[in-house]
Each structure stands twice: as C-alpha cells, then as structure tokens.
Write a structure and sequence with these properties.
Elements (H helix, E strand, L loop, with lengths): L1 E3 L4 E4 L16 E8 L5 E2 L6 E4 L5 E10 L11 E8 L3 E6 L4 E3 L7 E8 L4 E7 L4 E7 L3 E6 L5 E9 L13 E10 L4 E9 L5 E11 L4 E6 L9 E4 L1 E3 L3 E8 L4 E9 L2 E9 L3 H8 L4 E4 L3 E4 L6 E10 L2 E2 L7 E3 L7 E10 L5 E5 L3 E2 L6 E4 L3 E2 L4 E5 L3 H4 L3 E5 L5 E5 L5 E4 L6 E8 L5 E9 L1
Parallel strand pairs: 1-7, 9-15, 16-23, 33-39
Antiparallel strand pairs: 2-5, 3-4, 3-6, 6-7, 8-10, 10-13, 11-12, 11-14, 14-15, 15-17, 16-17, 17-21, 18-19, 18-22, 20-21, 22-23, 24-25, 25-28, 26-27, 26-29, 29-30, 29-31, 32-34, 34-37, 35-36, 35-38, 38-39
C-alpha cells in the first residue's frame, strides 16, 4: 500500500469469532504496533480492531496487529503484518532568478526562473502570475525546470499547485514564489532641448528631461555622453521630482549648438537619447558678436547667415512652437505684424567636413511696437520724419536707432535717441523700417513710407 505523507491511515483487524473465549469472557484485545524503516516496533494503541493513525515521517512502515489474551482453544494468535510506503509530498523551490531585474526596453532580456522539484517524476504544476492573474500549467520529467518569462511590469510568480507521479500533491503553504522586477521607464521624446536662458555655474547649457516610471524605481541615474570629447559633461546624481508631480533628470550640456548622443542609465537599464543644445542669441553674441535671429521692422524676422563657421542652407520657421507651412526662407514675414515667439530649424554645412548638421534656435520674442509712433505717413523725399518713443529713462539710456531700406540695407544709424527723434535725408522713395534697440536690450520697430 502507498499513501502520501500527512494522510491518515485506517488500520482494521478482526478475529474470527470475535475476541471472546468459550465462556464468553472478553479478556483478549487486539493491539497495533508499527516499525519504521525496519526499526523496533512501537505501540500505536492500547487496543481496538479499528485504529486511525497518521505517520509522522515519510518512508517504509510495517504495521503489526497483535492479539493479546487467551482464546478458548488455549492457543495465541500469531501477529499479522502489513507494509505501507508513505511517500513524501513533492516540493517546488525557486533556486535562481528570484529578485532579478530586467529592462523593458531591452527585448533580448528574459527572466529565467529556475525551479527545483522534489518527489517522483513526472511532475505537473501550475504557475500563477499574481500581478496579471494569468496561469500556466507545466508538465515535465525534469527535477530542475527553467521557467522563462518576459513581464512588462514587476511581477510575482507563485507555484499554486504541484503533483508528482505518486499522485501526491504538494502542501500549498509550502510552495514557493519569486519576484521579477521590471524597470519600465518611458522617455516620450527622442530629442531633448536645452533650457534657453538657463546655465550652470560654469556657464554651460542645462537640459531637463522628463520621464514616466511605469514600474521599477527611480532613485539615481547616470548620464554618459557617447562622444568622449564631451565626457567632462558626464553626470551622476539623484532623480528629481516624484510620482505625483512627475520625474525628471537635469544636467549640463555643451554650450556649442548641436545634437549630442547621451546614454541614460536608471535601475541598471540604459536608454539612448539626444540632447540638443539650442542656438541662442546669447551664445551667438558672446562667441561671434552677432545675433542668430534678428527682427527687422515690425513684421519680419531673419536668420543672420554671417555667423563665422556656419553656412546655413535650409530653414524652417516656427511660431509659438508650431511649424509655419511654407516658411522655409532666411526671412519670414508675418502679415499684420509679428506676434509671439519665433524659432527656426536650420541645416548648416560644416565648413571643415562638409557634413550637413541640424540646429534649432531658441525662441525669439517679437518686439512690442505699440510704444512707437511715426509721422507724417506717408512722407515725401527729403521731408523730416518724427518718431515718438514712449520709453522709460532706463530704456532711452544708450538706445540706438537703425533705419533700413526694403532690401535690408542700413540707411542711417542714430546713436542718441530721444523721446522725440527727428530723421531726414531720405532721397529715394520706398518703404523704410526703423529698429530701436533700447538701453534694456529690447527691440522696438516702426515702418514708414517715402513718396515723391
């Protein structure tokens, strides 16, 4: 007979004619004994023909029914022995892979969970993903089974059922579980632009990179510039933000405009992004003494194509972050006057290598022209023009007035601007534009017409 450990046995013994002698006395009893692994017999009960017993250990047992007492015939009954094998319950244990972390963005990463089985093969067991509620039934002849999974989030895998070839089922409370951590972090953009107007303590550009944590943790990170020429900008530190307000990374970038390949590592998982240092007027002025974008009059913005080392060959203008269809020239004119923030995507030829490089400028705020009045309009050739400026004393201090013709050529420059400034000497008819650079580095524009 074979049973599974923990199962209760019922031991039955009968004596033909009962245990009474010929006079009807009941001075004889049946007692049960067991011998474990051929050891010394141990008493189970004080007496009884029907006994319930649960073996404490798995193994080989001999159960002995012994009649004790005198039968009427004057003879004692011999012992009766039965053999029982108590099979151990099978077990399943995760012996490798528990607690490992895989990266959701690496499709070649697989979590291999090694399960060690005890008992008699073949085995049948069920694994449940407690995170998703999915089940999988597995049949195997192996005592070491590798269960491979690719979860999309941190998941707990629990063995909820196990049965071996002896028909014994595992005790549920003894079955094992394993956790597979998944670092699933989403970077929504491929290119992250630097913050215009912000710099670190060394004057370098600063980039802020938001991201979303689907699963995993976001405690620390490293940022590695893949071009070793910029390894000075490599950074490691704490992730900023939180789950409620959002997580982000912030670190320095080169001042020089361009795109830089950066490898971000969080939770030992790597993410390749591009950091784009925007072409700013501040950089162009500091390095070359010229702005990259300038406002001409009240309705035109223009890219300065005289920046040393850059030869711009393609343009695409944007207004308030939205691409302007068809605005692909060095100049852009807004019908009705400029209003908002303008930027431009540039393709330039590297004069050293001949390669084409893409740049993006910072937003350029169009100037407010409401503070400028001009009369008479139109004026005649050689007639004096009056320009009234509603400016503060600080704005007037050091202000300059440049007047351009329709082709963008400089006609006059007035170094001493007053609240009421008079200009004359226009010999040619046409449209003229005035640009006032205030003492606070703001731009005001005005347009007027000269006729014969």
């Amino acid at each position: 007979t074979m049973v599974c450990h923990g199962e209760e046995l019922t031991l039955n013994a009968t004596v033909q004619g009962g245990v009474m002698d010929h006079a009807g006395n009941t001075n004889g009893i049946v007692k049960w004994y067991y011998a474990y692994e051929n050891g010394t017999a141990q008493s189970i009960s004080l007496g009884g023909t029907n006994v319930h017993y649960t073996p404490e250990l798995a193994g080989y047992y001999q159960f002995i029914a012994r009649y004790e007492g005198q039968l009427g015939s004057g003879c004692n009954l011999s012992d009766h022995t039965t053999q029982v094998t108590v099979n151990p319950r099978p077990t399943a244990t995760f012996t490798s892979g528990d607690g490992m972390t895989i990266c959701s963005n690496d499709y070649q990463q697989i979590a291999h969970l090694v399960i060690t089985l005890t008992g008699r093969a073949p085995f049948s067991f069920i694994v449940k993903n407690e995170t998703t509620g999915e089940y999988q039934t597995i049949n195997t002849n192996l005592t070491t089974y590798t269960y491979s999974v690719v979860p999309d989030r941190t998941s707990i895998y629990r063995i909820i059922y196990l049965k071996d070839a002896n028909g014994c089922e595992a005790v549920v409370s003894d079955l094992d579980a394993a956790i597979v951590n998944v670092s699933n972090i989403q970077f929504t953009e491929g290119i992250y632009a630097t913050e215009c107007g912000e710099s670190d303590e060394n004057g370098n550009a600063v980039v802020r990179i938001p991201f979303t944590v689907i699963s995993g943790t976001a405690g620390t990170f490293t940022a590695e510039y893949l071009n070793t020429d910029y390894s000075v900008f490599n950074f490691s530190g704490d992730v900023a933000g939180n789950a409620e307000s959002g997580y982000y990374l912030e670190f320095s970038a080169p001042q020089t405009p361009g795109n830089y390949a950066v490898r971000i590592k969080i939770d030992e998982c790597s993410y390749d992004i591009t950091v784009r240092t925007l072409f700013s007027n501040q950089f162009a002025t500091a390095q070359y003494g010229k702005n990259i974008i300038e406002q001409r009059w009240d309705d035109v913005v223009v890219v300065n194509n005289n920046i040393d080392g850059y030869k711009f060959v393609s343009y695409q203008w944007y207004r308030n972050g939205e691409m302007i269809p068809g605005a692909t020239g060095q100049y852009y004119q807004e019908v009705g006057g400029l209003s908002g923030f303008y930027s431009v995507r540039l393709i330039a030829q590297d004069l050293a290598t001949g390669n084409m490089i893409e740049y993006m400028t910072c937003d350029f705020a169009s100037a407010d022209t409401k503070a400028v009045k001009v009369y008479p309009v139109p004026a005649k050739t050689y007639q004096e023009i009056t320009i009234e400026l509603d400016l503060t004393e600080e704005e007037l201090n050091g202000a300059l007035l440049d007047i351009f013709d329709m082709k963008g050529g400089l006609v006059q420059r007035i170094n001493s601007v007053q609240p009421v400034t008079k200009v004359s000497g226009f010999v040619a008819q046409g449209t003229y534009f005035g640009r006032i650079l205030t003492g606070t580095n703001e731009i005001k524009t005005v347009k007027f017409i000269i006729v014969k």
